[in-house]
Structures are given as structure tokens and as C-alpha cells.
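User: Batch of two.

Assistant: Item 1 of 2:
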Amino acid sequence: MTRSALTHAPLLVSRTLLSRLMRLYDYPHPAHPDRIIRGYDRPHAVRTARMCAAVATALGHGAERVCQYQIACLLHDLGRAGLDRRLFGKIWSWAKAQGIPTRPREWRAVHPETAYGRETEAFLQHYRNKLEADGIAMTPWAKEQVEMRLGYSRRLARRLRTVRPTIKKMGVTWLPWMQQVMLYYYYPEKLTSAKPWIRQLAEILVACEQFEAYSNQRRGRDYYVRKKETLIDAFAYLETLQQEGILSGAVMGALRRLTAQGEFDAILEEARGCAFTRGERRALRAMES
């Protein structure tokens, strides 16, 4: 790792604790109990958490809170522990090709008759036969891949119940607000009455996670069915989230400012798997203007 990667958007937890936290993403294979499914794209979680800590600090959150927050950010994808890259990709690339909503709030907007929290079941009721006709068997394991998106809240809750004793043994105090910020992207309504600082931390996680994801070559290929990563697409999506009220001007302003200052260059280049072009670097430096 380069020096700039270490000094910009720093990691606030020890390398030992980081390694132990990342192992929480490992998941026993349902068909082969002696095999472990290694957590998918754990570097994404680390890069996102580093960016989140930088933005939270820039917005005035205290050091102790930011350190606790970074732990939540490191585990923000825990509800997708066990993600089967091939099967998950087949299901959701199929859904994208059909124009089917892939997030709970988007699903409910199209299917308001769906009971809250039952989006996974509704998806299967609507599309199970079509998926199987296209060669994607809806086994219990396949249903879990659906739940990783449309039922993320309950899957995260199950996984946290399983690993919380292990987290406690690490010396980490798990606080309720940490789970709240992890759920905000899929369930913004859950933070309607949250304290402003919790809501802001949740917004930061969404902004940084999506910025990293839109710059992430591996995730783009496996998860978003995308062939190329562009800064224009990344900020266009973040601006859409701002228009929808998911992100505030304060969070977007801080993210733009730190990006313009070069705080995230090394992180984003690592995610892309290549260096920025001169033109891209100029665009980044002008991000705040």
C-alpha cells in the first residue's frame, strides 16, 4: 500500500482488530458445511470505512464517535455475508434486464400492496416461475441471495445476533445506532425520528459507500453488471440521492471538498484497479467548484 493510502482517510482501528472484524464476513457454505464462503470484496468495506471516517471528522464528529462509527462502516455489508457471486449475479442481472426494482423502497413504490418487510416473498411470488423457466432454480440458497437485497434488514439482524458475542470478545461495544446507520440506504424511513447526528452518519455511509462502489471495478462487474467506472456516473447518482432527500447538502459538500483536496485519490484508484488519467485528476481537483 502506498504512503498516501496510509495517510489519507486513515484506518482508525488496529490491523489486528480489522482482520478479526473482516472474518465476520466469512460464512459456512449451506451445501458444504466444511467449506467457508469468504466474505465478498472485503477491501470495499475497508475503503468505504476510511472515507466515512474522513467525512465524519470533517463535519465535526468527535474522535471517539468516529472510531466507533468506522467499525459500523467496516461491517456495513454484513447482511450479505455468504454472497454467492455467481448465483447473486445471475439473479440480479436477470432482474435488472427485466426492469425489476432491486431495493425495498423501490419495490414498495412499484408494488404498494406488498406488506412492509415482505419484499423478498413478494419478489419470489411474482418472479419465481420466470426465474426457473430461465434456468435459475429458486432453492433456499437462491432465496437468501434475494433476501440480501430485498430483505436486507432482517438478514443483517440475524447475522448480527450470530456474531455479536464474537464482537464483544474483541472488546468492541456494539451500540444500537451502529445498526441504524447500516440500514439507511435500503430503509431511510427507519431513521425518520433518529437524532440528527445519527442521520448524518448514516448519510455519510451511503455517500461514501456509493462513491466507492461506483468506482469499484470488481463490484461493477460482479454486482452492478457494469462494464466501466466513471466519476461522472458516481456523482450523478449521488446527486440523484440528494434530490431524493437521502443525502444532505452538508454531506455532499464535505465529500466534494475532500475529493477536490485529493483525500480519496489513492482509495479510488485502488478500487478502480488503475490510476486516474490527467483529465480525471483535473476533474477531481475541480470537484468543489
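Item 2 of 2:
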Amino acid sequence: MTRMILLRVIGICTAILLALHAAMAFYGDFVRPDFRASDLFSGEIPPEKAKVAAGGVLASVSLDGDLLANYAAARAADVLHRPSSDAGGRASENKAAQAAVVTALKVSPIRPALWLTLGTLQAQTGEAATPAVKMSYLTGSVPIDVAFSRVRIVTSSAAATDEEIKLLAQSDIRSALANRSRYEPLLIAAYVQATPQGKSLLLETTAVTDPKFNEILRRY
């Protein structure tokens, strides 16, 4: 009799756990922000704050890599595109977004665009972004929009002094030059805003890849 009761209790607990799992999966599909880290760099409009907040409720208890990554990307987009009006609020929101990104990367680290998101948030507050930017290179390929955003971050930060990143960034610059009609004005803007090391990186790469464009850059 005791064994029968124990089996029933185990069965009931298992059924409850399965029901909770199914409910969380359904809720996750309903509130999951439809916003990926790559969208942050391609001009996509971030989700509304209410949806981001709803996703955060589930993200706080979830180990779903996609859910955590999407929530972190949406949180970062909110910080970068809809910043708080006061400095204290901006710093607090940035730290919270960084924490969400780090949590997602601990669960699912092979996400180059999300690593770049972390580097972008760090660069915004003057923190060292080089390790995160390097991880964005080492964890996989990215779409051209993300690659160009990475060029801007590298050339405008201390990342341009890292020899390994300089070699890796040349590929991003060549990709942008392959779409010169689209990225020429953006590359010029990146050059104008670049650090001295970033300017050198752009000049050295374009001198080999596109000498005519190199001449254009030298006018600025």
C-alpha cells in the first residue's frame, strides 16, 4: 500500500512538472521578443518596453538559449535606441542590459552578434570592449550589417590596438568594400570618427583592397 501511494505521489508530481513545463513553453512562445542580436545592427525597430518586460519575467527562470538571447538583444536595443534622459538612468540601464547579455551567453555562448552587443554596451560606457569584440570574431560568421557595425566599434575604440583583432577586422572592411555603393559613406563616417589606430587600420586595409577608395579616405 505504501509503495502504491508513493508511486501515485511520484506520478502526480511528474504530471505537475510536465504541465508547468508545457505552460512555460507556451508562455515563452507568446512573450518571446521577436528580436535577435543581429537585428540590433540592421536597423530593425526594437520591441516595445512592455513586451521586453514580459520576456524578462520568463527569462529570469528560463534556460532557453534563444529566449535569453532574444530578451538580451531587445534589452540592449532599448538601451541603445531609447536611452534614459538622465546619466544615472542610462548607466543603470546599460548595466542591466549587460547582465542580461552575459546571462544569455553563459547558457548559449556561440552567438557572435550577441558578443558584439556586449562590446557595444561596454564601449558606450567607456569600459574595455576588446575581449567581447574578439569573441564576436571567434564564435562564428555574421551578416554584413553586423560586420560593418563591428568595423565601427573596432576603429573607434581600443580594440584597434589589438593585433589579432586588426587582422580579423580586415575581413569585415573588405566585405564592406565589396558593397562599396552601399557602405562608402558609412566607411567614410567611420573613418572620421575613428581613433588614430582605427584610421591606420582603415587606411592600411583599403590601400591593398581598394586604392581609389583609400585616396578618398585620405582627404578627410
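The CA atoms of residues 35 and 49 lie 13 Å apart.
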